[in-house]
Amino acid sequence: MADEQQPHGAICEVCGQDMLNSKGCLATIIIDGVEYQRIPMGADDDFYGGEEMADVKRCGDCAAWRGHCHHWGCDCERCPICGGQLLSCDCGEEFEFK
Predict the structure, then answer these.
(1) Per-domain residue ranges for the chain?
(2) Under 8 Å between Cβ of 80 and 46
């Protein structure tokens, strides 16, 4: 057990990574059977997008690094369909990941 790295933060329920020790979520999102590209942290259409947020290196909610996907359940992840907050949008009845 001494050789195993112990988690330091919350574990993403989708990709299984320790959020504080990973760059971001690895899963692809499927909404109502259609696969979509997730919006990476810091992209132009992300919560942390734009020049005023350019100095933010990690998401304040899920700790994803700029350029990597937010972890599932993050308040800051945007919906790839409507651009709103993914957790509260009405774009899909069913969310899956692969």
Answers:
(1) 9-98
(2) no
At residue 1, the pLDDT reads 43
DSSP string, the chain: -TTSPPP-SPBPTTT--BGGGSSSB-PPEEETTEEEPPPBTTSTTSTT-SGGGTT--B-TTT-PBTTSBPPTT-TTPBPTTTSSBGGG--S-S-EEE-
* pLDDT above 90: residue 38: yes
Please tell me the distance from the alpha carbon of residue 75 to that of residue 97, in angstroms, as a whole number: 18
Residues 8-30, mean pLDDT to the nearest whole number: 92
Encoding tokens for residue 26? Answer: 């690895």
CB 54 within 8 A of CB 41: no
Q: What is the Cα–Cα distance from 49 to 33, expressed in whole angstroms?
A: 28
Backbone angles phi, psi at 86, to 5 degrees: -60, -40
